[in-house]
Amino acid sequence: MSRHLARSVQQKHLEAMEFCDKAIAARARKNHARAKTLFKKAYLSEREAATLLEKKTDFEPTRSVLFRSAAALAIECGEHRSAEKLIATALAGEPPREIAEELRDLFEQVN
To answer: How many CA atoms lie within 13 A of 58 on its CB side?
Structure first.
């Protein structure tokens, strides 16, 4: 994987985690509208990071971890169909056994 791609993935993932931290803080303050907005931003950033590695099935476990995280955030946002697609994409690669199990658990949660 090129340095540029790795940097882009890392940047998007860190952005997603910052949004997620802010969303959790907003939820703790009972500012649910703000939390919802921030979780949506986290989901979109994490999905973008994962999508950058969609065809990089040899880049495990990073690839499947990003897809799992994006799927979990999609569920948080009520984007169940998107979560299903993200889970399917992750499972279509070569995720480690324990991550594959977590992905299947998320799929059950969506359904």
So the answer is: 1
Question: How far is it, in rounded angstroms, from Cα 90 to Cα 50?
Answer: 9
Over residues 70-96, the pLDDT tens digits come to: 999 999 999 999 999 999 999 999 999
Q: Is the pLDDT of residue 19 over 80?
A: yes
Confidence of residue 12 (pLDDT cuts 50, 70, 90): very high
pLDDT value, residue 2? 86
Q: What is the distance, to the nearest Å, from the Cα of residue 35 to the centroid of all Cα atoms in its chain? A: 17
| Cβ atoms of residues 67 and 46 within 8 Å | no
* DSSP codes of every residue in 50-110: HHHTTT-TTSTTHHHHHHHHHHHHHHHTT-HHHHHHHHHHHHHS---HHHHHHHHHHHHHH
- CA distances (Å), origin 87, targets 13, 25, 71: 17, 27, 6
